[in-house]
Fold this protein.
Amino acid sequence: MATIELSINGQQKEIDVDPNTPLLWVLRDHLDLVGTKYGCGIAQCGACTVHVDGVAMRSCSMPVQGLAGKKITTIEGLSDNGDHPVQQAWIAHDVPQCGYCQAGQIMSAAALLKKNANPSDQDIDTAMNGNICRCGTYTRIKAAIKTAAKNS
Ligand code: FES
Ligand code: FES
């Protein structure tokens, strides 16, 4: 066990945990931030996507020990009131079906738009490639990203 200091959604947190614990389980089990989902556990589905220093990362495969001093943002911290342009576009396009993958989809989309305000179809496909949706909401996801890009 070790005490790890993390910056999560703008707040400093101290957590006593095995340093090899993946960030996902610190978020869910220690901090009750359960918007970030467990899908595969091997960085293959994107359900667990968060931002680390603004970059979309898979929290299921990221030991917490390397994250001191980095800024971590989860779906709960993406905006104060659920009004990030990506979240608004998701509502406008009625994107989710079961919803399980959607926090990860939104976090990947938000990270894309942060570094590329006007992504092409190819840019969107590349950025979203690792986010799997077994409900097949891909068409709505792409349309919503284009709307969010216009409104950002
Ligand atoms: S749960 Fe992390 S990528 Fe699938
Ligand atoms: S909305 Fe069901 S898995 Fe994506």
In short: The mean pLDDT is 97. The CA atoms of residues 28 and 95 lie 24 Å apart. The chain has two domains: 2-76, 85-151.
